[in-house]
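Appendix B. Raw example, untouched.
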Amino acid sequence: MTSTPMTHKPQLNPALKLVIDLGPLLIFFAANSRFGIFAATGAFMAAIVIALAVSYALTRHLPMMPLVTAIVVVVFGGLTLVLHDELFIKVKPTIIYVLFGGVLLGGLAFGKSLLGIVFDSVFHLTQEGWRKLTLRWALFFLALALANEVVWRTQTTDVWVSFKVFGVVPLTFLFAALQYPLLHKYAAPDPAQAEPAQESAQEPAQATE
């Protein structure tokens, strides 16, 4: 089985990518602690748009997951501010998680592993590896959606904001780290590296023709 073809794109420095990914959430947490949920929502919207713009400026492409997340944040954050109702910003994570989980499961139902597209992935796996990893992440997203619903419905706004930053983020990193054995087991050769090797192997044969 061959790996799912992946397009090589410019990648951010890992430390900078971490700042871009976590920066808006940390700003959201800090603004909520000092100014309340509505000011935090506005700051979060601005921060996530700036983060997306910086990412595009440095790589000249927009990763699918951050792009969709930013769109949902702007739409539901805008509703939160216009209607002065924090419900919209609270259900925003649920919608994002259900959206990604549903897309991944839908892809699997049609025999497609869409995880590489969702995560703008740069690693290479066999088809079986992609299928298993996609299923795991789909179920994880749906579990996060359920957790978000439970927390915002049963806890205060401050607790919910803390859960987003200090609960969801560490859980996501931990879950991703736990997938390393699968990535190692189902690793496939990089097609970009395999092609030059094949061309080099063909040259001696062509010389004898």
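End of appendix B.
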